[in-house]
Design a protein that fits this description.
The structure is a homodimer of 178-residue chains. Chain A is mainly alpha-helical and 178 residues long. The first copy, chain A, starts with 6 loop residues before the first helix and ends with a helix. In chain A, 69% of the residues lie in helices and 7% in strands. Chain A has helices at residues 7-13, 24-52, 56-66, 74-81, 85-97, 119-139, 145-177; strands at 72-73, 101-105, 113-117. In chain A, strand 2 and strand 3 (113-117) form a beta hairpin. The longest helix of chain A has 33 residues, at 145-177. The first copy, chain A, has two domains: 20-139, Winged helix-like DNA-binding domain superfamily/Winged helix DNA-binding domain (Arc Repressor Mutant, subunit A, Orthogonal Bundle); 142-178. The relative contact order of chain A is 0.08. In chain A, helix 2 packs across helix 6, helix 3 (56-66) packs across helix 6 (119-139) and helix 4 crosses helix 5 (85-97). Chain A is globular, with a radius of gyration of 22 Å. The interface between A and B is large, with 57 and 56 residues. Chain A binds a DNA duplex (30 and 30 nucleotides) through helix 4 and helix 5.
Chain lengths: 178, 178
DNA sequence: AGAAATTATTTTAAGCCTGAAATGTTTTTG
DNA sequence: CAAAAACATTTCAGGCTTAAAATAATTTCT
């Protein structure tokens, strides 16, 4: 950002990372990211309700199923959406009732439930997805292409950092368990 | 889906913004941002439960109240947290029961409820906030200071873009209403 | 002043979401 | 082969969240 000269000025001019034990910058970054996510989520939620009388969890679930031709198990969906298994069970129940999703146990392993979009489900989803893509573009319209690319890249680094930190802690916990 | 020949090859080489009507980059950006937010939220939620036996909504609410000496109204909190009024009412109820938050109607306007942290609430929150700040720093540890600053700046631009897009649409809706 | 509009909050009904316990199924192991 | 372990999903209890309707208080307008 700027070019400071002496060591003390350096502390003043650079960000808090120079001050030991201070992590305000990371906190502010997180709060700003959360604000952005919440604004987008709320807006998409509103538009899905107004324009398609549906909810974001339903849309997200259908989006996963649309990505595959052969269907997906409950566990697979739950992992991809980063929600609990029980949650998937509940949301799927609604979609099955509405004839948008088909659920059947796998013939070779009856523990597993295979979820697929019905023909109608696929049709309905495709229509929503098209609008959804426009909405997202509209929301990000204030960023030019290089800014989008840059942001995408930095969020990639963030994701890596998060995975490392979370896995690290899980490892610690496991060590304690053993 | 097939390999195009002349003009379209250019499309392949340049970014999607060159293809009219294609907004895949924005969509991928949003999905990546959502992944990051969800990872952080889930991790913070887990740690708050394990270490302090509390929930993220409660923590967030207390964080707002900690920012003021004179207290905050229900509406003010709801706006800042970007959640519904009814939600604040419910979460506050729990915190009042636990003696962490105090709620009383404003003397000059009895419609308004003033929320403040109790002494205990402030003490409990401060302890959690300190840990929380460390956790966030830990999660972002893979980013160096310039990356954090850059990301913060880009998310600022994003926020501006979002506000403009959302306000714009609200304006349209209002026009229709009149 | 009194009616109407506005404002702040709460209530309600419905759906989302979680972690943990329970259920049913398959695989491993003694 | 049968018991035990592992696995996939569902159920359950509890809390969060929302939009919309209801309630309560204040302000505005005539």
């Amino acid at each position: 950002m700027e070019t400071p000269s002496s060591a003390l000025v350096l502390d003043r001019e650079t960000k808090a990372s120079e001050r030991p034990g201070d992590h305000k910058d990371e906190l502010r970054l997180w709060l700003r990211m959360l604000t952005c996510s919440t604004l987008i989520e709320t807006e998409i939620r509103n538009r899905l309700r107004e324009e398609f009388k549906t909810t974001l969890p339903r849309f997200d679930l259908m989006a996963q199923l649309d990505k595959t031709a052969v269907g997906m198990t409950v566990g697979e969906v739950s992992q991809r959406l980063m929600v609990s298994n029980g949650n998937v069970t509940a949301v799927v129940a609604g979609l099955v009732t509405d004839g948008l999703v088909d659920k059947r146990s796998a013939p070779q392993d009856r523990r597993v439930q295979i979820l697929t979009l019905t023909a109608q489900g696929r049709k309905v989803f495709r229509a929503m997805a098209e609008r959804h893509e426009d909405w997202i573009a509209e929301l990000f319209a204030g960023l030019d292409q290089p800014a989008i690319a840059q942001l995408f890249r930095l969020l990639g680094e963030t994701k890596t950092s998060l995975h490392r930190a979370i896995a690290g802690r899980a490892g610690e916990a496991a060590k304690g368990d053993a």
